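Input (structure):
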């Protein structure tokens, strides 16, 4: 591409395969060969990618990852302002989506540098499509915090979100994350764990959050994307504790076991099972205390 003298260059965000190298878009090889500068999250993985594609970058290759992103961004902006075509690639998927890139894009836009993209595979959209959950409206939540308290707080922020939720997670934290989701969203909420997408050992595990948490407790490996069903529509008027207890009792009197009755009422009300369970336990304790009080009043004097 010919650039007019003195005109800024172009920043190209290039999507890379999330697993199967055959998914690489044809333009990726062209851009890798033509770029003046290739900024890569991991230069070793870039080398394996270019070898697989049979292409040799003509331009300078530099690293661009979380640790040097702040320092290297001004350097790359200077290259762009000097007319260079800078190609940004990350280890998998689209740059800046839970990967390095946003800082550079923002800086380029601020200096009126053209930014374009080579579309490529997306773990978010692939997992969403394979999940079997509603796809008409969704939101991407990225990685949850590592600390348990912060993770629960973030999940509570979206407990009432009606759209399908998509998360990335590390395999060694998956069991804790699914358990936290079951606690906040309810262990009956549907979800899908998508593991090693497009790779040899791809696996899509679908089911209620409670069951998926038990499965993950045995240990899971690989790159993980979690898709969670959005919150059910709540009744126009929230049900109070007394009404929750009444509905559980109606089901118990009809022959359901308490556990199943609580789960059914929680699903109807759009509440976590723990909330309904707590209401039932509180009502039982209150009734026990009332009976004890009546018994003391009815006891004959001196007995």
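Output (sequence):
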């Amino acid at each position: 591409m010919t650039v007019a003298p003195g005109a800024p260059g172009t920043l190209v965000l290039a999507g890379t395969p999330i697993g199967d190298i055959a998914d690489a878009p044809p333009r990726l090889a062209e851009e890798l060969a033509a770029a003046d500068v290739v900024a890569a999250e991991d230069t070793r993985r870039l080398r394996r990618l270019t070898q697989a594609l049979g292409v040799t970058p003509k331009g300078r290759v530099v690293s661009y990852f979380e640790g040097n992103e702040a320092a290297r961004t001004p350097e790359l902006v200077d290259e762009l302002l000097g007319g260079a075509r800078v190609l940004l690639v990350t280890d998998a998927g689209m740059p800046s989506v839970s990967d390095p890139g946003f800082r550079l894009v923002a800086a380029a836009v601020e200096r009126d540098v053209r930014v374009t993209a080579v579309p490529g595979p997306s773990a978010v959209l692939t997992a969403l499509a394979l999940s079997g959950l509603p796809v008409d409206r969704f939101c991407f939540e990225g990685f949850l915090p590592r600390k348990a308290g912060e993770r629960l707080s973030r999940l509570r922020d979206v407990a009432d979100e009606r759209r399908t939720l998509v998360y990335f997670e590390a395999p060694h934290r998956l069991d804790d994350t699914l358990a936290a989701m079951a606690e906040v969203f309810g262990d009956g909420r549907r979800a899908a764990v998508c593991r090693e997408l497009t790779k040899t050992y791809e696996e899509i595990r679908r089911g209620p959050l409670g069951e998926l948490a038990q499965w993950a407790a045995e240990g899971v490996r690989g790159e993980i994307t979690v898709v969670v069903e959005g919150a059910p529509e709540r009744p126009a008027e929230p049900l109070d504790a007394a009404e929750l207890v009444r509905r559980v009792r109606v089901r118990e009197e009809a022959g359901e076991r308490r556990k199943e009755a609580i789960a059914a009422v929680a699903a109807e009300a759009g509440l976590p099972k723990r909330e309904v369970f707590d209401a039932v336990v509180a009502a039982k304790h209150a009734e026990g205390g009332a009976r004890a009080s009546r018994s003391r009043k009815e006891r004959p004097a001196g007995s």
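Notes: The radius of gyration is 27 Å. The first helix runs from residue 26 to 34.
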